[in-house]
Amino acid sequence: MTKTKIKLKIGEFSKLNMVTVKTLRHYEEIGLIAPDEIDKWTGYRYYTVDQLSKMNLIIYLKGIGFSLEEIKEIFEDGREMPSVDEIKQKLKECNDKLMILKRRADELSKLEDKLQKREIMEQIFIKSLPAVTAASHRRVIGGYQELFNLCPNIIGPEMARLGCECASPEYCFTVDHNEEYCRTNIDIEYFEAVAQRKEDSQMITFKDISAVKTAVCINHFGVYEALPESFAILYRHIEKNGFRITEKPRFCYIDGIWNKEQESEWLTEIQVPVE
């Protein structure tokens, strides 16, 4: 019995392979897979059953990362599958892309976290600052990290020696006295509200700090190198609302290296006295 050869029109062939006719015409143009027969009168394109397997192979190889040009070269070499060396090269490309995607995912996560923190930081608030008697210590430090050793290990013991008791509620802050940015040699003054004034010592001076009726404040989350971002938001709000800055900004270090492992959890409240 003579077998009848099935001729598949281009539309049928596209449906069986789940690819568009446009794609099949493109594959024909680049010489990847062409119709087995083109009717010279009608122009109809016909594919064979055997070409279904070839088309499946094209789809498979394309799905695992081989370009159409690479697939064409494999077929032109009389092969159906890539060589081991070609597969190794593709694996290397995959690993390279995975590394790039991993770095991209890490950066996107950082950006997401940053934007979420910014939404919190952009919640500017107004409050009054109390009049307090404060133990003050001023010195030039090499960097802000030095401050977090200075407070608990030097200023704290001296205040204890003088018999200081912290005020309730507690209130401490620093003021940067530099007139311009200094990476090192930062002229910093530390203030901590105390319940009662004591005798000054070589390290500690007691000062009466006046109340501030209005302070524009913002919560800064994260490293101190990113403080300019918060200042931009804060000062834009001050300008927009017609405030006048009356004193240097105060920095209240609420959470930091001393109690948080993640830098993203560091919290500094910036207070700018205004009128």
Tags for this model:
4-stranded antiparallel β-sheet, rod-shaped, Multidrug-efflux Transporter Regulator, Chain: A, Domain 2, Multidrug-efflux Transporter 1 Regulator Bmrr, Chain A, alpha+beta, 3 domains, 275 residues, 11 strands
Verbal overview:
The protein is an alpha+beta fold and 275 residues long. It has three domains: 75 residues, Multidrug-efflux Transporter Regulator, Chain: A, Domain 2, CATH 1.10.1660; 39 residues; 150 residues, Multidrug-efflux Transporter 1 Regulator Bmrr, Chain A (Alpha-Beta Barrel). Strands 4-9-11-10 form a four-stranded antiparallel beta sheet, covered by helices on one side. Strands 6-7-5-8 form a four-stranded antiparallel beta sheet, with helices on one face. The protein has a three-stranded antiparallel beta sheet with strand order 1-3-2. β2 and β3 form a beta hairpin. It is rod-shaped, with a radius of gyration of 36 Å.
List strands and helices in order, with pairings.
Blueprint: E1 8-9, H1 10-17, H2 21-29, E2 37-38, E3 45-47, H3 50-63, H4 68-76, H5 84-121, E4 125-129, E5 132-141, H6 144-161, E6 172-176, E7 186-194, E8 205-209, E9 212-221, H7 227-240, E10 250-255, E11 267-274
Antiparallel strand pairs: 1-3, 2-3, 4-9, 5-7, 5-8, 6-7, 9-11, 10-11
- Global geometry: rod-shaped
Can you tell me the CATH class of the largest domain?
Alpha Beta
Based on secondary structure, the structural category is: alpha+beta
CATH superfamily of the largest domain: Regulatory factor, effector binding domain
State the total count of DSSP E strands: 11
Q: What's the N-to-C terminus distance?
A: 103 Å
- Written as H for each helix and E for each strand, in order along the chain, the element string is EHHEEHHHEEHEEEEHEE
Rg over CA atoms: 36 Å
Tell me the number of helical segments per DSSP (H or I, 4 or more residues long): 7
Strand content is 15-25%
As residue ranges, the low-confidence spans are none
